[in-house]
Every structure is written in structure tokens, then in C-alpha cells.
Amino acid sequence: MKKTFFAALALTVALAAVAPKPAHALYVYIHNEAEYSIELPDAPLGTTIWADQDKAVPYLENPPKYGSIGEIAFLKRVDADSGDSFEVNITFLKADRDFLLSMTKEKMLTALQDLYTASPLEDMKEVFSAGTDTLKWATLTGYKVDQANALHYHTAHYLTGLDTIMIVQVQYNLENKVFQKYYETLAKSIKYVGK
Questions:
Q1: pTM, whole model, 2 decimals?
Q2: Beta strand 45-50 with 85-94: parallel, antiparallel or unpaired?
Q3: pLDDT digits (tens, 9 = 90+) for 161-178
């Protein structure tokens, strides 16, 4: 009996050693009250946004006066060899119907452009898509060149749902192929999941 157990254990270990491993593990980010999910290369650090916090609540015109109204999630991965970084900043907020109905293409793209006022993007492109009811998606992309003359890709997505908004900002060195794959996976994975 012991011999059979150890033989089976040895076979399991041998198969695990040769089994293909994923390029990188993924973490599906979705707040309990959010309507969109996103696949990230790792779990982000999250900070709750409270209605009575000292800082102004971003994006909302008339934020709720009580309780938890959202979250800011941040993820940064650094390549130990090159020093390149991959950064994701997600802002999730509950929003009332009047606010969501008022969100036009111009308002959403202006909110994204405001993120880069201090340091404008080069070759900026804008995309907008409207779904049913208050479901809308605006995207802004562009590039920046750093002091080492490396090209960095920047993008921001503004997603509206039926009760929430989510803003996703990403930046990384375009020459880093691993980070390029991270972004391709992230961009394809953003989906509306409802509540």
C-alpha cells in the first residue's frame, strides 16, 4: 500500500513539473457593488472612498452624503531588470441615475482629458461607444516619452453602468513585451457584469 501511494505521489509530482504553466496568473477585480470586472496581473491595493472624507470625491457632481461610495484600487508591477513599470489605477463610484443620464460623449472624454492636463499626451486618440440605457464607454489613448527616451503608453477608460461609474487608467513602457501582454489581457477582459 505504501509503495503504491509513493509511486502515485511521484507520478503526480513528475506530471506537475512538466505541465504547462500559465504565462502569469490573473486576478479578476470587481468591487462588490460594481458593474464591471477587469482581469489584472495581480491583486490591487484598495482604498474605500467615504462620503465624509476630507478629499473631494472625484468625477461625481453631487456625491452621496453618507457611507461608502466607492473605491480606488492601485496596482504597480516593476521589472527588476529594466526598472520599467506597469501601473493601473481604478476608480469605482456609485452614481445616481440623473448623473448617469447626463453623461454625454463630450463630458466623459473631457473628464479623461482632464487626467492629463498637467502632462499632455502625444498622438491622443478618443473612442466612444454607447450601449443601452446609461451604459457607455469612453477611451482616451496616447503616449509620453520619459527622460530616458522610452516610449510610454497611456490609456484611460470611462465606463458607466446603471448605478455606477468606473475609470481605469493604465500606463507602461511600450517596449516591455510582458507589460504589453498584461495590457492586452486587461483591455480584452473589461466587461459589464451587471449587479
A1: 0.84
A2: unpaired
A3: 999 999 999 999 999 999
